[in-house]
Design brief:
Blueprint: E1 7-11, E2 16-19, H1 25-30, H2 48-65, H3 69-83, H4 100-116, H5 125-128, H6 132-142, E3 153-156, E4 175-179, H7 181-190, H8 192-199, E5 204-205, H9 208-213
Antiparallel strand pairs: 1-2, 3-4, 4-5
Protein backbone atom coordinates (compact mmCIF):
# COMPACT_ATOMS: atom_id res chain seq x y z
CA UNK A 1 0.00 0.00 0.00
CA UNK A 2 1.28 3.44 -0.92
CA UNK A 3 0.62 6.27 1.52
CA UNK A 4 0.06 9.85 0.44
CA UNK A 5 -1.30 12.88 2.29
CA UNK A 6 -4.00 15.29 1.30
CA UNK A 7 -6.52 17.70 2.75
CA UNK A 8 -10.29 17.72 3.14
CA UNK A 9 -11.62 20.57 1.02
CA UNK A 10 -15.34 20.02 1.51
CA UNK A 11 -17.88 18.02 3.54
CA UNK A 12 -21.50 18.37 2.43
CA UNK A 13 -23.11 15.91 4.83
CA UNK A 14 -22.97 13.05 2.35
CA UNK A 15 -19.47 13.04 0.89
CA UNK A 16 -15.98 14.23 1.73
CA UNK A 17 -14.00 15.88 -1.04
CA UNK A 18 -10.28 15.25 -0.59
CA UNK A 19 -7.46 16.81 -2.58
CA UNK A 20 -4.18 14.92 -2.55
CA UNK A 21 -1.15 15.70 -4.75
CA UNK A 22 0.01 12.78 -6.89
CA UNK A 23 2.24 13.12 -9.95
CA UNK A 24 3.23 9.53 -10.76
CA UNK A 25 0.60 8.67 -13.37
CA UNK A 26 2.63 5.73 -14.68
CA UNK A 27 2.69 4.03 -11.28
CA UNK A 28 -1.01 4.80 -10.79
CA UNK A 29 -1.87 2.98 -14.00
CA UNK A 30 0.59 0.11 -13.49
CA UNK A 31 -0.70 -0.69 -10.01
CA UNK A 32 -4.32 -0.37 -11.10
CA UNK A 33 -5.26 1.81 -8.15
CA UNK A 34 -9.00 1.97 -7.62
CA UNK A 35 -9.98 2.10 -3.95
CA UNK A 36 -8.48 4.15 -1.15
CA UNK A 37 -8.52 3.99 2.64
CA UNK A 38 -8.99 7.40 4.21
CA UNK A 39 -7.74 8.16 7.72
CA UNK A 40 -9.21 11.29 9.29
CA UNK A 41 -6.91 12.87 11.85
CA UNK A 42 -8.25 14.70 14.88
CA UNK A 43 -7.04 18.28 14.58
CA UNK A 44 -7.49 18.98 18.30
CA UNK A 45 -4.45 18.66 20.55
CA UNK A 46 -4.32 16.80 23.86
CA UNK A 47 -5.80 18.87 26.68
CA UNK A 48 -3.98 19.64 29.95
CA UNK A 49 -6.61 17.58 31.80
CA UNK A 50 -6.01 14.56 29.57
CA UNK A 51 -2.27 14.89 30.10
CA UNK A 52 -2.71 15.03 33.88
CA UNK A 53 -4.93 11.96 33.83
CA UNK A 54 -2.48 9.97 31.71
CA UNK A 55 0.46 10.79 33.98
CA UNK A 56 -1.59 10.05 37.11
CA UNK A 57 -2.53 6.62 35.74
CA UNK A 58 1.04 5.85 34.75
CA UNK A 59 2.15 6.93 38.22
CA UNK A 60 -0.22 4.40 39.78
CA UNK A 61 1.14 1.66 37.50
CA UNK A 62 4.76 2.62 38.25
CA UNK A 63 4.19 2.45 42.01
CA UNK A 64 2.53 -0.96 41.67
CA UNK A 65 5.20 -2.35 39.33
CA UNK A 66 8.16 -0.91 41.22
CA UNK A 67 9.59 0.96 38.23
CA UNK A 68 10.43 4.59 37.64
CA UNK A 69 7.58 6.61 36.07
CA UNK A 70 9.66 7.34 32.94
CA UNK A 71 10.25 3.62 32.41
CA UNK A 72 6.54 2.87 32.70
CA UNK A 73 5.74 5.78 30.39
CA UNK A 74 7.90 4.40 27.59
CA UNK A 75 6.68 0.84 28.11
CA UNK A 76 3.01 1.83 28.10
CA UNK A 77 3.42 4.05 25.06
CA UNK A 78 5.20 1.26 23.18
CA UNK A 79 2.55 -1.35 24.02
CA UNK A 80 -0.22 1.10 23.19
CA UNK A 81 1.28 1.89 19.78
CA UNK A 82 1.78 -1.78 19.03
CA UNK A 83 -1.67 -3.02 20.08
CA UNK A 84 -4.08 -0.12 19.79
CA UNK A 85 -3.03 2.71 17.48
CA UNK A 86 -4.11 2.13 13.90
CA UNK A 87 -3.23 5.51 12.43
CA UNK A 88 -0.49 5.99 9.86
CA UNK A 89 1.53 8.00 12.40
CA UNK A 90 1.55 5.36 15.12
CA UNK A 91 5.29 5.84 15.68
CA UNK A 92 4.93 9.58 16.30
CA UNK A 93 2.86 9.36 19.48
CA UNK A 94 3.78 11.93 22.13
CA UNK A 95 1.90 13.15 25.21
CA UNK A 96 3.16 16.65 24.53
CA UNK A 97 1.32 17.18 21.25
CA UNK A 98 -0.78 14.14 20.26
CA UNK A 99 -4.39 14.64 19.27
CA UNK A 100 -7.33 14.35 21.67
CA UNK A 101 -8.55 11.07 20.20
CA UNK A 102 -5.17 9.39 20.67
CA UNK A 103 -4.94 10.78 24.22
CA UNK A 104 -8.39 9.42 25.05
CA UNK A 105 -7.55 5.99 23.66
CA UNK A 106 -4.27 5.96 25.61
CA UNK A 107 -6.12 6.77 28.85
CA UNK A 108 -8.60 3.98 28.06
CA UNK A 109 -5.67 1.63 27.48
CA UNK A 110 -4.09 2.52 30.84
CA UNK A 111 -7.38 2.02 32.69
CA UNK A 112 -7.94 -1.34 30.99
CA UNK A 113 -4.41 -2.35 32.04
CA UNK A 114 -5.12 -1.37 35.65
CA UNK A 115 -8.42 -3.27 35.72
CA UNK A 116 -6.94 -6.32 34.03
CA UNK A 117 -3.99 -6.54 36.43
CA UNK A 118 -5.77 -5.51 39.66
CA UNK A 119 -3.48 -2.51 40.09
CA UNK A 120 -4.37 -0.66 43.33
CA UNK A 121 -4.94 3.07 42.90
CA UNK A 122 -5.01 5.98 45.30
CA UNK A 123 -7.72 7.77 43.33
CA UNK A 124 -10.96 6.28 42.01
CA UNK A 125 -10.54 5.35 38.36
CA UNK A 126 -13.79 7.10 37.50
CA UNK A 127 -12.06 10.40 38.34
CA UNK A 128 -9.24 9.62 35.90
CA UNK A 129 -11.38 8.30 33.06
CA UNK A 130 -11.68 10.45 29.95
CA UNK A 131 -14.49 8.33 28.50
CA UNK A 132 -16.84 7.37 31.33
CA UNK A 133 -18.97 5.13 29.09
CA UNK A 134 -15.91 3.12 28.08
CA UNK A 135 -14.74 2.97 31.69
CA UNK A 136 -18.04 1.57 32.98
CA UNK A 137 -18.13 -0.97 30.15
CA UNK A 138 -14.60 -2.11 30.99
CA UNK A 139 -15.64 -2.52 34.63
CA UNK A 140 -18.65 -4.56 33.49
CA UNK A 141 -16.41 -6.87 31.47
CA UNK A 142 -13.93 -7.29 34.32
CA UNK A 143 -16.63 -7.53 37.02
CA UNK A 144 -15.02 -4.65 38.90
CA UNK A 145 -16.96 -2.15 40.98
CA UNK A 146 -17.11 1.10 39.02
CA UNK A 147 -16.65 3.04 42.28
CA UNK A 148 -13.88 1.24 44.17
CA UNK A 149 -12.55 -1.49 41.89
CA UNK A 150 -13.47 -4.39 44.16
CA UNK A 151 -15.16 -7.55 42.93
CA UNK A 152 -18.59 -6.62 41.63
CA UNK A 153 -21.99 -8.04 40.84
CA UNK A 154 -24.41 -6.58 38.33
CA UNK A 155 -26.80 -3.93 39.61
CA UNK A 156 -29.82 -3.36 37.40
CA UNK A 157 -30.68 0.31 37.00
CA UNK A 158 -33.74 -0.76 35.03
CA UNK A 159 -35.23 -3.16 37.55
CA UNK A 160 -36.61 -6.44 36.31
CA UNK A 161 -39.73 -5.91 38.40
CA UNK A 162 -41.60 -7.71 41.11
CA UNK A 163 -43.00 -11.07 40.16
CA UNK A 164 -40.80 -11.51 37.09
CA UNK A 165 -38.39 -14.42 36.77
CA UNK A 166 -34.91 -13.02 36.00
CA UNK A 167 -34.00 -16.19 34.13
CA UNK A 168 -36.83 -15.61 31.64
CA UNK A 169 -36.73 -11.83 31.20
CA UNK A 170 -34.87 -10.28 28.28
CA UNK A 171 -31.95 -8.33 29.75
CA UNK A 172 -30.52 -6.89 26.51
CA UNK A 173 -30.63 -3.09 26.45
CA UNK A 174 -31.29 -2.68 30.18
CA UNK A 175 -29.18 -0.16 32.08
CA UNK A 176 -26.80 -1.48 34.71
CA UNK A 177 -23.72 -0.85 36.85
CA UNK A 178 -21.07 -3.21 38.23
CA UNK A 179 -21.04 -2.63 42.00
CA UNK A 180 -19.51 -4.32 45.03
CA UNK A 181 -21.78 -5.27 47.92
CA UNK A 182 -21.12 -2.06 49.84
CA UNK A 183 -21.85 0.23 46.92
CA UNK A 184 -24.75 -1.95 45.83
CA UNK A 185 -26.30 -1.28 49.22
CA UNK A 186 -25.35 2.39 49.02
CA UNK A 187 -27.19 2.96 45.73
CA UNK A 188 -30.31 1.42 47.26
CA UNK A 189 -30.00 3.70 50.26
CA UNK A 190 -29.56 7.04 48.49
CA UNK A 191 -31.22 6.34 45.13
CA UNK A 192 -29.87 6.02 41.62
CA UNK A 193 -29.77 9.71 40.66
CA UNK A 194 -27.95 10.78 43.84
CA UNK A 195 -25.53 7.86 43.50
CA UNK A 196 -24.63 8.64 39.87
CA UNK A 197 -24.14 12.31 40.71
CA UNK A 198 -22.02 11.55 43.76
CA UNK A 199 -19.60 9.26 41.92
CA UNK A 200 -19.81 10.94 38.48
CA UNK A 201 -20.91 7.72 36.80
CA UNK A 202 -23.19 6.83 33.92
CA UNK A 203 -24.98 3.48 33.61
CA UNK A 204 -23.85 0.93 31.08
CA UNK A 205 -26.13 -1.12 28.86
CA UNK A 206 -26.40 -4.87 28.76
CA UNK A 207 -25.40 -6.22 25.36
CA UNK A 208 -24.74 -9.78 24.19
CA UNK A 209 -21.23 -9.78 25.63
CA UNK A 210 -22.28 -8.50 29.05
CA UNK A 211 -25.25 -10.87 29.15
CA UNK A 212 -22.94 -13.80 28.50
CA UNK A 213 -20.47 -12.52 31.09
CA UNK A 214 -23.14 -12.49 33.80
CA UNK A 215 -25.11 -15.45 32.46
CA UNK A 216 -28.20 -13.40 31.78
CA UNK A 217 -31.01 -14.33 29.47
CA UNK A 218 -30.70 -12.68 26.05
CA UNK A 219 -34.26 -12.97 24.81
CA UNK A 220 -37.76 -13.39 26.10
CA UNK A 221 -38.68 -17.06 26.42
Amino acid sequence: MEIIRGEVVNADGRFLTIRAPYDNAERFIRREYGEVVVGLEDGRKISPEQRRKAYALMGEIAEWAGYEPDEIKETMKYEFRKKIVKSLDRDLFSLSNCDMTTAREFINYLIDFILRNDVPTHRPLAELADDIDRYVYSCLLRKKCAVCGQKADLHHIDAVGMGNNRTKVDHIGRRCLPLCRAHHEHIHNIGTTAFLDKYHLKPGYIDERIAKNYRLNKKVT
